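[step 3/7] inverse_fold.run input=structure_tokens len=233
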């Protein structure tokens, strides 16, 4: 189970003893490579922490790595909403290394955050159960994830079968997995892969950074929110 940082909760609690501040909305744009898997997962996160309301807008679906980044830039620049965060979510899969690397570098150059995974988004799911440090294929992720969850469920419960576009993965991982541990393992993996040849960093996932923000665990975003809160924006 994940451990939510309660710094924001404490801040709002202190504020509420003096007055009744209005709810603060934090706007996210999340552009995904997949049409359902990633959006279904992120849509399942709690939409409110204390007085903080998360407003998530989704885009993309059915486009490749570089296309996800370009779509994120396009939607951000055309929007009347000033997003607090813009995220591009995509996988390495079988895309050429140079295209995958170029997508991440282009995102960096245009202030787009990347929750990329190599090889697949399912690596993030699997890290809820085990510290995976060797490369796997997409089919292997599926079988290992099923094995891990079924071990946690026990033989008396209905056997779990992973469905890629499921809208239940967030709740399943909450019940049987350990998000806090997944974040720790993902951070260790990321810290060992240095340089800009991202396609060679297999396995690795940066999904944990977006997860931390949606959990209220990102110190950087929390500082921005506090500043926005204090200015009454």
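[step 3/7] decode complete -> sequence:
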């Amino acid at each position: 189970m994940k451990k939510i940082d309660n710094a924001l909760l404490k801040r709002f609690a202190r504020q509420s003893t003096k007055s009744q501040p209005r709810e603060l909305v934090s706007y996210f744009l999340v552009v995904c490579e997949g049409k359902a898997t990633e959006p279904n997962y992120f849509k399942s996160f709690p939409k409110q922490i204390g007085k903080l309301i998360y407003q998530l807008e989704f885009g993309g679906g059915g486009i490749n790595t570089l296309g996800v980044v370009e779509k994120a830039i396009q939607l951000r620049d055309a929007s009347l909403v000033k997003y607090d965060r813009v995220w591009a979510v995509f996988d390495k899969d079988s895309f050429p290394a140079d295209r995958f690397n170029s997508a991440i570098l282009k995102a960096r150059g245009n202030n787009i955050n990347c929750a990329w995974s190599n090889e697949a988004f399912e690596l993030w799911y699997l890290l809820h159960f085990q510290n995976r440090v060797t490369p796997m294929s997409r089919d292997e992720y599926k079988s290992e994830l099923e094995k891990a969850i079924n071990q946690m469920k026990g033989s008396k419960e209905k056997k779990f079968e992973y469905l890629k576009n499921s809208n239940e993965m967030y709740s399943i991982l909450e019940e049987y997995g350990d998000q806090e541990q997944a974040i720790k393992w993902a951070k260790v993996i990321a810290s060992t892969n240095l340089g800009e040849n991202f396609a060679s960093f297999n396995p690795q996932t940066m999904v944990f950074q977006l997860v931390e923000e949606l959990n209220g665990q990102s110190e950087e975003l929390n500082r921005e929110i506090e500043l926005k809160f204090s200015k009454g924006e």
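[step 4/7] annotate
The chain has a mean pLDDT of 89.
The first helix runs from residue 7 to 18.
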